[in-house]
Amino acid sequence: MSSEETAAPSKAAPDDDGMTWWYRWLCKIAGVLGGISCAVSGVWNCVTVNPLNIAAGVWMVLNAFVLFLCEVPFCCQFIEFANAIAARADKLKPWQKALFYCGMALFPVFLSFSFTTLFGNAIAFATGVLYGLASLGKKGDAVTYARLQHQKQGDEERMAGTANGAPE
């Protein structure tokens, strides 16, 4: 038995995080658009003499590289470890990705606050927000909510009846 045959059954399904297929694609597309906007704005931000703007621009280009590496690793085929990093990023929970992407997007804004850094990182930050919303989970259905409300009203009536001294 080869090592690939033994490793195949132990792979975890990436669908266990509760995200639907269209929301997963929306997050990936937002990550790609965020990477493009970070790259373009980062290069534009580097065309200056202010060292903080240059540092923020370099960080934004690094953000773009990380977004491409995590969301669309086929764009980085020339890097040997791209698939390993993408597989590790896919194993992260949505709240971890949200924290990572939002933190990466906020750092250049704090480093050099300008329109270029603000709007260049907005889509990358929005990608983090989308992953953060995914970590909240799916919305409940109306039947379950109505049943819960009915049960809650019954409990409140029962508690009001015992508080007034009335026997049950």
UniProtKB/TrEMBL annotation:
- Localisation per UniProt entry: Endomembrane system
Keyword Cytoplasm in the entry? The reply is no
Membrane topology type, per the record?
Multi-pass membrane protein
Q: Give a yes or no for keyword Protein transport in this entry.
A: no
List the keywords (alphabetical): Membrane, Transmembrane, Transmembrane helix
Supply the Pfam families for this chain: Cg6151-P (PF10233)
The terms describing its cellular component in GO are: endomembrane system; membrane
Instruction: Give me any GO biological process, just one.
Output: vesicle-mediated transport
* Regions that span the bilayer: 21-44, 64-86, 98-131
Task: Say where the protein is mainly found.
Answer: membrane
Q: Describe the family membership recorded for this protein in Swiss-Prot or TrEMBL.
A: Belongs to the calcium channel flower family.
- What this protein is called in its record is Calcium channel flower
Organism expressing this protein natively: Fundulus heteroclitus (Killifish)
